[in-house]
Amino acid sequence: LSVDMALTDHMLYMMLQQVLNIIVSMIGQITILYVDTPLMLAIGIPAIILYYIISTLYMSAA
User: Fold this and answer.
1) What is the distance between the alpha carbons of residues 14 and 7, in angstroms, rounded to a whole number?
2) How far is it, in rounded angstroms, from Cα 53 to Cα 60?
3) Is Membrane included in the keywords of this UniProt record (predicted)?
4) 3-47 pLDDT, tens per residue?
5) How far apart are CA 8 and CA 31, in angstroms?
6) Which of 6, 26, 27, 8 is nearest to 16 (CA)?
7) What is the pLDDT, as a whole number, of residue 62?
């Protein structure tokens, strides 16, 4: 039983590390994109807001 728990703890740690790595990488890529292309900021923010509104309405209707 303790071997199973140790394996589970190790796998959980590895997956958490991967998720955090992906999040940091994504934040870095978005930052570089917005610094390099300021027009994306003017297009990206309204697109994100519109996507959130549409997905919220869709989920409440479903």
Assistant:
1) 11
2) 11
3) yes
4) 889 899 999 999 999 999 999 999 999 999 889 998 988 898 999
5) 35
6) 8
7) 77
- Residue 52: both structure tokens together: 């959130």
Alpha helices in the chain (DSSP H): 2-36, 38-61
Q: Which two tokens stand for residue 2?
A: 């303790």
Number of domains in the chain: 1
Is 44 exposed, middle or buried (CB count within 10 Å of its CB: 0-12, 13-18, 19+)?
Answer: middle
- For residue 40, count other CB atoms closer than 10 A to its CB: 14
Domain that holds residue 47: 2-61
pTM for this predicted structure: 0.64
| The residue type at 45 | I
